[in-house]
Amino acid sequence: MSDHKVAYITGGTKGIGFGIAKVLLENGISVAFSGRKRDDVEKAERELKQYSENVLGIVSDVRSLESEEEAVKYTVEKFGRLDFVIANAGLGIFKPVDELTAEEWNDMIDTNLTGVFYTLKASVEELKKTEGYYITVSSLAGANFFENGTGYNASKFGVVGFTQAAMIDLRKHNIKSTVIMPGSVATNFNGNVPSEKDSWKIQPEDMGNLVLDILKMNPRVLPSKIEFRATKPA
Ligand SMILES: NC(=O)c1ccc[n+]([C@@H]2O[C@H](COP(=O)([O-])OP(=O)(O)OC[C@H]3O[C@@H](n4cnc5c(N)ncnc54)[C@H](OP(=O)(O)O)[C@@H]3O)[C@@H](O)[C@H]2O)c1
Questions:
Q1: Triad 210, 132, 189: Cα angle to 5°
Q2: Which among 4, 29, 36, 153 has most CB atoms closer than 10 A?
């Protein structure tokens, strides 16, 4: 890609969002990313600067539309435009439905589903200007339900439906949309500490390479829903 392009990634302080940021920066794309904790955002920004100086860490919580509007404003102030939005921030709490609290339910729905809408809502006018790209990170849990998964399954099934319906609306504005549904990725998700035992899993960098491949596709084609899994599950 030769033109100057700018991405905003939610939840980029670690895991998948960090991996996507790294690959985009290595490929000449300017990156703004968010997280809720200032210390984590500053640490990730320092680490990402080794790949490119064109990186901006922003403290933002996707559960707040106002906060996402500010994040988009900072991104455009810093880099002058916004081409790619990757709605990635999310969390999972896994418990039997009779034990899941209302607070835990709301935390997942507000972050994983409403947050994805807020990030789009805050950025859509900028994406119209650049005829950009909107990518969401759902999960294979957005197609397959499992024990202890009610809140997480509901949020991720929701992201698949939301992104596909948004795709139909947004393509009228020449904005492309893709929902990615990864299997197990070696991250800090659900309290995991990535180690050698995770070597069979998708790595965060693999997610970055997938996003880069999607962004590079010919404008006439649109991979609207992608299931992405480890070749050999443990
Ligand atoms: N790892 C997997 O196996 C897997 C598989 C399929 C799908 N996914 C999905 O991939 C996405 C990324 O997860 P991950 O595996 O990279 O997990 P992770 O290592 O725990 O990273 C999650 C990121 O999201 C941020 N975040 C959480 N809540 C946020 C909020 N309200 N506002 C802004 N940022 C927030 C976190 O930063 P702070 O906590 O500091 O805010 C962190 O940067 C999630 O949507 C997850 O559901 C993961």
A1: 40
A2: 29
Question: Which helix (H) or strand (E) covers residue 110, if one does?
Answer: none
* Distances in whole angstroms, Cα of residue 201 to Cα of each of 131, 208, 221: 34, 14, 28
The reported pTM is 0.98
Q: Rg of the chain's alpha carbons, rounded to an integer?
A: 17
* Structure token pair of residue 83: 């081409």
- Domains along the chain with CATH numbers: 6-228 (3.40.50.720)
94, 189, 226: which to mutate for ligand 1, most atoms within 8 A of CB? 189
Encode pLDDT of 138-195 as tens digits. Answer: 999 999 999 999 999 999 999 999 999 999 999 999 999 999 999 999 999 999 999 9
